[in-house]
Structures are given as structure tokens and as C-alpha cells.
Amino acid sequence: QVQLVESGGGLVQAGGSLRLSCAASGNVFSADAMGWYRQAPGKQRELVASITSGSTTNYADFVKGRFTISRDNAKNTVNLQMNTLKPEDTAVYYCNVRRIGPIVINYWGKGTLVTVSS
Predict the structure, then answer these.
(1) Exposed, middle or buried by CB within 10 Å (0-12, 13-18, 19+), for 20?
(2) Is 100 within 8 Å of 44 (Cβ atoms)?
(3) Mean pLDDT, rounded, of the chain
(4) Per-residue pLDDT tens for 28-81?
């Protein structure tokens, strides 16, 4: 099992910045991909950004140029720097660890709320 704990959410004005952090513990494999998803009220959960163990990144179009994902493999942490926040970025942000093997296993944190006021 893998346990994920997010931190760093909160209330910020439009145009502001926040930094989310996620600490993974338990049976974490260095080859696991890590990422951030978000879910706004009444909407499905969607990918925000992901990063492989080799630091290859992938971003949703709606955050490109504004958000940056990074990870520290030694500490089993993944961060999301969010700049130029918009009210539509308001959502619960979830940390994710994805293990690809014979089957794909996803581990999730409990989420952290980000609220962007206009």
C-alpha cells in the first residue's frame, strides 16, 4: 500500500500563486509515476499534471505555462507550483501515484481544496 498526504491548499486571489506538496509513504516504487488531478464541484476528476520517475512531465492544456510539477525521488514527494491562478482553477486537488505493471494500480490522497477568488 501507498499512503499520500497533500498539503498547501487554501484561498488565494485570482492571479496569485500556491504550491501544493504531496508526501508518499509505504510501499513506494521509484518507477511509479506521480501526478496531480483535480475535481471541481459537479465535474469529473481530471488530470492536471504528471511526472515519471525520469522526470518526464505532462500537463493538461488548461495549465500549460502556469503550473509546474516536480518530484524528489529520494524523499518520495511531488510538488505542484501553481501561478497565475484563475477562479476556474478552484477544485479539490488530489495527489496520485500510478503503478504500471501487469495491471495499473492508482493510489490517491484525500485531496486539498484550492479556492481562487475573483
Answers:
(1) buried
(2) no
(3) 95
(4) 887 889 999 999 999 999 999 999 989 999 999 999 999 999 999 999 999 999
38 neighbors 94 (Cβ within 8 angstroms): yes
What are the φ and ψ backbone dihedral angles of 61, each rounded to 5 degrees?
Answer: -55, -35
Scored b (16 or more CB within 10 A) or e, 84-117 reads ebeeebbbbbbbbbebeeeeeeebebebbebebe
C-alpha span between 26 and 15 (Å, rounded)? 36
Which CA distances in Å does 51 have to 40, 116, 118?
A: 22, 25, 30
Q: How many residues does the chain have?
A: 118
